[in-house]
Please model this.
Amino acid sequence: MARIGKNIQKIRQIKNISQSYMAAKLDISQGTYSKMENEELGIRDELFEQIAELLEVDKKVIERFDESIILNNNIENVNDQAQAGGIYTTTYNYNIDPEVEEGYKKQIKLLEEQNAILQKQLDEMKKNDK
Model:
């Protein structure tokens, strides 16, 4: 499982999840978790499955994760006339793995739902203060 640790690390960072959180959920120390991400320790299959579940991605996404695909800034169009005037117009095409994109969409939906709940609570608190 080459580069699995680094791939886990990158996905965890994209999802803004701490090593401490992952370690606590896996019932291991943060130091042990860090060594796994840094590929100083191997990752058992059952632990790999748990990590994939916590990151809400399929194990295949972790195995074939390629940062250059997700963050690939392919410049499609540069307006030469604008560039000559000191203004740069660039169009970027971001190629995102469909499974990773689906994970982002789920995360966005969850955050929107949480935001709506918090907004409703805030509105009720304001109403009660009047």
